[in-house]
Amino acid sequence: MLHLTRAISIDEAELDWQPVRAQGAGGQNVNKVSSAMHLRFDIRRSTLPEAIKQRLLTLADQRISSDGVLVIKAQRFRTQEKNRRDALDRLAELVEQASRVRKPRRATRPTRSSQQKRLDSKSKHGATKRLRGRVDD
Known about the structure:
Blueprint: E1 2-3, E2 9-10, E3 15-20, E4 36-42, H1 50-58, E5 69-74, H2 80-99, H3 112-131
Antiparallel strand pairs: 1-2, 3-4, 4-5
Helix pairs in contact: 1-2
């Protein structure tokens, strides 16, 4: 079990790991060793609470496919184990972000004095611009 928060945990069987070759510079070693890791996590089939699943699926994240599979590619480090840890940390961060419930914004009206200040500054600015007009001889 992978414990993301105190209340949320994911079973290791829900995570699909695939070692891949890392991109970028690295010399001859990069062609031989698969040190990068792909983490696939099917959000719809997971044991996460339904509310968190829905928030994850509504995120505008390019790592989430149309069929609800989150793919994290970790290639920051030179070892598979560190990249695996990095992918888990990024998954935990994403789930933790989705578990936070935002307080709905309450619509408010501007005060009368703030409206008056805005109108006064507009008229002052307009007067300044009028003074910049053409000078008559």
